[in-house]
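Figure S7 source data.
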Amino acid sequence: MTVYRVVRSDEEWRRMLTPLQYEVLRRKATEPRFSKEHYHNIHDGTYVCAGCGNPLFSSSTRYDSGSGWPSFFRLIDPVAVKTLLDHELGYERIEVQCALCGGHLGHVFDDGPLPTGGMRYCINSASLDLIPDDG
Ligand code: FE
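Tokens for the predicted fe (iii) ion complex:
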């Protein structure tokens, strides 16, 4: 059983999050490709969970996968997320959730760039907030 450190009622999540953030983070929706500000975001900083602020990805590990969703080749810390098998589309994918609040972030695939490890974290913009580096 997973115990999340950030626990809120469905009502609280609805109040806190935008409708799109709620659908993605709490209902596992996938946002349309090329949506929202982060796809074209060029600022350096740290991408955190939009639900709870958990630091997930550094902008230095972001790359353009062409998928239409923000893509990263490495987590800041492997324990920042939890992965689960997902058969929703009729084939197996690996879902990535925030380890602190259980929010749905996206999926991870093994077709990422080499030599950085070959991982592609395919993450919904709506699940992320960017904390820009100072200066
Ligand atoms: Fe979170």
